[in-house]
Structure to design on (375 residues):
């Protein structure tokens, strides 16, 4: 099974004003040799001084990309309803919190909490933990949520909590640093970033690998240039989820774009100014992501002892939560202009060839909790 990839244009990463991170990377690679793709991606996104997620505004019409909560308020409202349903499935515990990983501008949480006003018994008990490292976006979140009643805690890591946890992560898994293996001269090799003869960043095949080859069992015989993408879900998020589940009932919702794998294909991509960019062109100045292998993610979570619901398409997920009736109610009290905006937003969220089909929803829960709606 193959995945569609983005053809990368030729580029010179020195053609724009020099990036401090680009210079830092050149120095590090020059001193220590080629850098694996996952290390390159992690530096670009989270480097303490120059990382994209440390400083960039990222989300919005005037930034680099737009996420589902910015497309329509209905998205966040339905996530709020999902949280209420998860709480009910847990048996309505008194000690309950919602954790959001990468909360963007705070739009999803603001819309979710507005929807939860119809469940006042949950809202009274609820604590909110927002996990982010971007001070620019944290400032926006604080402004957007300044009138929220109740306790909101900001942190760069999920804090301990004695009670039940509902975790929300929209477009988070795709940012987890990815390894790439490239088939070269009859062997699978670590794909690395190095320097060419003109000191430009360039992809090169690195050392041979063998421990990951079991992932290739169901794939066709590879040919030179084929790329396989791998993530260590246990180390990057699984350990955290296990820790949360030990503290009380646990349910998590992940929504992201991806495929059912493993599969051959290069999905490593950069987005800058709402346009695709070469992933090596502007280190620290563009958002770097890769598609999520949901099959491997689900298997890893099950191997860690969790129950898994899904994945299903975003369109199926939102339909099951009642996006149609919710949009109809909104339009009943809306102006003509607002009705058009609501319709356009819903169509974008549900488009089979767009967000509705490309994005998937998957739930991970404590094994003693029943299946979660609408899976």
């Amino acid at each position: 099974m193959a995945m569609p990839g983005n053809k990368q244009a030729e580029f010179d990463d020195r053609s724009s004003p020099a990036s401090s991170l680009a210079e830092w990377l050149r120095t590090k690679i020059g001193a220590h040799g080629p850098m694996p793709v996952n290390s390159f991606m992690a530096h670009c996104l989270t480097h303490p001084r120059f990382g994209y997620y440390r400083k960039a505004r990222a989300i919005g019409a005037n930034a680099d990309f737009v996420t589902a909560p910015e497309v329509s308020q209905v998205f966040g409202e339905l996530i709020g309803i999902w949280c209420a349903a998860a709480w009910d499935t847990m048996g309505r515990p008194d000690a309950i919190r919602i954790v959001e990983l990468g909360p963007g501008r705070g739009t999803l949480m603001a819309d979710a909490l507005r929807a939860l006003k119809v469940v006042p018994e949950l809202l009274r008990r609820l604590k909110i933990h927002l996990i982010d490292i971007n001070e620019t976006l944290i400032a926006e979140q604080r402004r957007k949520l300044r009138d929220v009643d109740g306790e909101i805690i900001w942190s760069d890591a999920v804090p301990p909590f004695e009670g039940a946890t509902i975790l929300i992560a929209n477009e988070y898994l795709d940012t987890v640093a990815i390894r790439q293996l490239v088939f070269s001269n009859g062997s699978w090799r670590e794909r690395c970033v190095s320097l060419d003869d003109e000191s430009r960043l360039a992809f090169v095949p690195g050392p041979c690998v063998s421990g990951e080859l079991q992932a290739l069992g169901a794939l066709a015989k590879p040919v030179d240039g084929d790329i396989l993408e791998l993530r260590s879900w246990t180390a990057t998020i699984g350990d955290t989820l296990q820790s949360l589940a030990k503290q009380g009932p646990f349910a998590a919702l992940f929504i992201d774009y991806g495929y059912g794998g493993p599969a051959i294909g290069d999905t490593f991509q950069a987005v800058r100014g709402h346009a695709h960019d070469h992933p090596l062109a502007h280190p620290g100045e563009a958002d770097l992501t890769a598609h999520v292998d949901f099959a491997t993610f689900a298997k890893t979570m099950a191997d860690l002892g969790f129950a898994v619901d899904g994945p299903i398409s975003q369109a199926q997920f939102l339909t099951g939560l009642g996006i149609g009736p919710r949009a109809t109610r909104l339009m009943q009290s809306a102006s003509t202009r607002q009705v058009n905006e609501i319709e356009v937003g819903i169509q974008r969220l549900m488009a089979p060839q767009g967000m509705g089909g490309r994005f998937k929803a998957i739930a991970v829960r404590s094994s003693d909790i029943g299946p979660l709606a609408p899976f």
